[in-house]
Amino acid sequence: MAHAENGVQYERLRPAQIVARREQCPVAYLPLGTLEWHGEHNPVGLDALKMHALLLRCAEAHGGLVFPPLYYGENREQALMEANPAHREPIAAKMGLPAHHFAAGYMMESISDQNRRYHALLLHIFHQIKSLGFKVLVVGGGHYPLLDHARAAAALFHQEQSRPRMITWAMTGYELVRGQFQPCGDHAGKWETSLQMYLDPGLVDLSLLPSDPKQELVGASNNGVQESSAAFGKQAADAIVLAVGERVRDFLANNSKYQVHGSPM
To answer: By the 8 A CB rule, do 166 and 129 touch?
Structure first.
């Protein structure tokens, strides 16, 4: 990558470097993602890869530090392409796996138990990041359904903290720029594929897509994905980074507004 991501990655810095950057801007960024089918043309880690790269750019542009991405822990029976009954069998076949590996019950826990364990994991991470001296936490959900889980955990975290609270805000990116782009948000379609092409181009292979744009795709949005480009991805990424910066500056400048119960987020 052309940008100096090592300077904003928490785990890659020495203690004095962390302190200096945190004192300059006490904002932490936490990327969330999954290991999920994103078509044959994209990596399975796209959600976390995309969000990690976006948050690196946010930290470089606005200050703060980025924590390592979380790929694991979410409910494996809902809101994943492999769990979708219409796509489960063809995806399993292409992955060389039995379809029942993605069926309900395989994880040995109920859906609600999986959700609660994930929320507990997020809460643990939130408290850990607060203990490291940050005033604001931006949680980026590269997998859109993780936004609900992050918000649920953030609401409980807000109640559990002693004051001053670490402001915790969750976003996925596309909802911040809705109306500026078409498409804006999809699954492995032109939006996500273009973002990945810009953020880490070596991981995308458009030649694996059918040349006929009308041909149905396995587990991917059929919305002009063949026209995906790094140029479109850059426009989208730049707009998201700009929008995140506006919120971060407000959190820092008006910290007391977000300390009370029922704070608008």
So the answer is: yes
Residue 205 in tokens: 């292979």
For residues 151 and 138, is the Cβ–Cβ distance under 8 A?
no
Side chain identity, residue 65 = L
**pTM of this prediction exceeds 0.90:** yes
Tokens of 70: 């979380």
Would you call 202 exposed, middle or buried from its count of C-beta atoms within 10 A (0-12, 13-18, 19+)?
A: exposed
Distance CA 95, CA 40 (A): 10
Which domains, from first to last, does the chain contain?
5-254 (3.40.50.10310)
Burial of 30 (0-12, 13-18, 19+ CB in 10 A): buried
Cα dist from 77 to 111, 114, 145, 186, 231, whole Å: 7, 9, 12, 20, 35
Terminal Cα-to-Cα distance of the chain (whole angstroms): 32
Place of tokens 């004051």: 163
Residue 171 makes CB contacts below 8 A (sequence gap 6+) with 138, 139, 140, 141, 147, 244, 247
Q: What is the pLDDT of residues 172-204, one digit of tens each?
A: 999 999 999 999 999 999 999 999 999 998 999
Q: How open is the CA angle 255-259-262, to the nearest 5 degrees?
A: 125
